[in-house]
Fold this sequence. Notes:
The chain is an alpha+beta fold and 128 residues long. It has a domain of 25 residues. The protein is 25% helix and 9% strand. It has 3 helices and 4 strands; from the N terminus they run H-E-E-H-H-E-E. The longest helix has 14 residues. It is elongated. The C terminus is likely disordered.
Amino acid sequence: MPVIKDLIKGLYRGANRHKEMTSKRGNKNFHPSRGLQRTGIKVGLRFKNVQEMIPEIVVPNLEGFTLKAYVSHKCPDTTEPPITARDIFDACVAPQVKADFKDGKFNSVNVTSESSSEGVTKQSNQSR
C-alpha cells in the first residue's frame, strides 16, 4: 500500500505547481504586485480598464525582407581599420575649419567662427 500512497502524493504535488503563486507559496523575494503593468484603475470595488494604459506593440511589415536575423560565422573578416575620433574630425569638421581660416573668419586674439552654430568664443594662448 505505501506505493499507492507515494504515487498519490506525487500526483498531488505535481498538480500543486499549477496553483496561483501567492506570498505563502513564493520565496522571500516574491511580491504579487511586481511583473505585469496594470491596464486600468480600481474604482471602488470594480476594476476599470483604461485604453491608454494598455501597451501597444508596433511591428513593422517584414514581407520581402531579405536580411537574416544573425551574422554567419563563415563571413570574411573586415580589412578596414577601426574609425577613430581623428578620422571623423578630418572627414566632417576639418574642411569647414580650413575654409573659415582661408576666408579670414578667425583672428589670433579671439578665436571665433561666424559659421559655427554655437557661436563659442575662446581666448587663444597668446593673449593670456
